[in-house]
Write a structure and sequence with these properties.
Length: 504
């Protein structure tokens, strides 16, 4: 989901299908418990704004340190040129000064692997890194464990203006008015589609569907024209369900999605939630939706879009992360080989000219582009020395510099979170002249327009929540379960998990 420093211009040329498969595989390859160690005042007992009672960020400790301060950073869930961006960022920082050495250590091909490793080591702080990069959904658990030094402590101590960060991103990663990570790699879901098939089906390739009902109508036309067996490729992922409900103002847990107070019960078993699953189930039964299990590292839902020579692809549309856009474009330059990606695939069977990729805002229930900030976040852990905590902030502050935040967008595929990046002429040119930029622009606009008061759920036992909702979706779309029954069962499971987590 990234690319090398020099970004060639590709306009809207067709993708090389093999490289698309190889690198997208790397993209995909993203349950807490109450506090066990760390800050005794951590957690969210009563909610409320705690920004005036932040712990101290020990900035002075760095100047007092003797010798080079080592910062171990764990990350995962990055692949291809996005991983290169992460590693290059650490190298660039190390070369910019001689006081700190950051070591970027890849802990796996998914966010989940890094979280599991962190959870396994959290009871033994000496085994933890100084910085850990985790999915946005881990925020509640990280705060509750009390092992995070809120980056806002360092921002205030260092006179960094937090309003430089986009409101939707800042809000999504804040708890009780405090911003916890020092940098956020933000993404949102968008619609990918094959313009070539749209043209052949008589659809306007420059006017893609903006709602789920419009996606269904487009799928019906594509199927009727015999251009794809199951036009919408769909990974059965709770992220999409959450985003669809958020787009119509519905939370998935109480207390404002867990944002004003720790959640105590789930709220996704609603008529709208049931109707959403019914719509997807109907699309599947009518041969319009190509359902795939959300298996870690799976790329089958991407493979479905590849047109074979002399035939039609399985699918013509896909909803997925915006972070895939830059990898797709980097592929055109041939920057990653199948061997490097670890994918065994015969490219000779693919009709490359028949794949003309494009993107559009996330098709919502009522309107397009209704999303909240998601992605990954870099946390400073308070379990190491004061000098290491101060050094960790220096690295994250380095990434917040506009020139480096820009690289995370243009190279790494993530959306700009530093406001000034949006105004830079070369970034604006990237959005109009480069395939990656053209495809990323709908996601950029979504994030800019996102409501800061409509952030995603903040849940301590998020893994339990996700597993219950994921199971409900899989039972409906992979095993023909009843939507109403499955959501009711999932909500009961989440309520029990929340009760146990909150000490009920």
């Amino acid at each position: 989901m990234s690319r090398s420093t020099s970004t060639p211009s590709h306009s809207r040329r067709p993708l090389r299908a093999l490289a698309l498969v190889a690198t997208i595989g790397l993209i995909l390859a993203a349950c807490g418990s109450p506090p066990t160690s760390g800050d005794k005042d951590a957690g969210r007992d009563t909610g409320g704004d705690k920004s005036d009672s932040l712990p101290t960020c020990p900035l002075d400790a760095l100047a007092k340190a003797t010798g080079k301060v080592k910062v171990d950073m764990w990350y995962g869930g990055l692949g291809g040129v996005t991983q290169e961006t992460m590693e290059d960022m650490a190298k660039k920082f190390n070369a910019s000064q001689d006081k700190i050495e950051v070591r970027a250590n890849n802990q796996g091909r998914s966010y989940q692997e890094v979280l599991r490793k962190y959870e396994g080591a959290s009871s033994k702080p000496s085994q933890l890194p100084q910085v850990v990069y985790l999915e946005d959904t881990a925020l509640g658990e990280m705060v509750d464990k009390g092992q995070v030094l809120p980056a806002e402590s360092c921002m205030k101590a260092d006179d960094y203006d937090t309003t430089q960060i986009l409101p939707a991103a800042r809000s999504a990663f804040s708890v009780d008015g405090t911003l916890y990570p020092g940098y956020m790699n933000v993404s949102t879901p968008i619609l990918y589609y094959n313009k070539s098939i749209f043209v052949k089906a008589g659809l306007d390739p420059d006017n893609p569907p903006g709602t789920l009902e419009e996606v269904k109508a487009a799928a019906e036309k594509i199927k009727a024209a015999g251009l794809a067996d199951k036009p919408l490729s769909f990974k059965v992922d709770r992220w999409f369900f959450e985003t669809w409900l958020a787009g119509i103002g519905q939370d998935v847990v109480n207390n404002d999605n867990g944002r004003t107070k720790a959640p105590t019960e789930a709220t996704f078993d609603t008529p709208e939630g049931v109707n959403l699953l019914k719509t997807l189930q109907e699309m599947k039964s009518e041969g319009l939706l190509n359902a795939f299990a959300a298996t870690e590292g799976s790329i089958d839902h991407y493979l479905a879009l590849l047109p074979p020579k002399g035939g039609n692809p399985q699918s013509a549309m896909l909803v997925e992360t915006s972070t895939a856009t830059t990898t797709m474009a980097a592929v055109v330059a041939g920057q990653i080989t199948p061997a490097e990606a670890g994918v065994d695939f015969d490219a000779s069977v693919v009709d490359k000219a028949a794949l003309v990729p494009a993107s559009a805002p996330y098709p919502g229930i009522e309107a397009p582009g209704k999303v909240f900030a998601s992605g990954g976040a870099f946390y400073i852990l308070n379990t190491s020395s004061d000098a290491q905590q101060a050094a960790s902030w220096e690295f994250l502050k380095f990434m917040l510099k506009p020139e480096n935040a820009k690289e995370w967008h243009v190279k790494g595929g993530y959306l700009p979170v530093v406001k000034s990046v949006l105004e830079e002429p070369d970034v604006q040119k990237f959005w109009t002249d480069d395939l990656a930029g053209v495809m990323a622009k709908p996601a950029v606009d979504q994030l800019k327009a996102a409501d800061p008061d409509q952030s995603g759920p903040l849940i301590g036992p998020y893994v339990d929540f996700a597993n219950a909702l994921q199971t409900a979706m899989e039972n409906v779309l992979l095993d023909s379960g009843d939507p109403a029954k499955e959501l009711k069962t999932a909500e009961a499971a989440v309520n029990k998990s929340l009760d146990d987590y909150n000490g009920g």
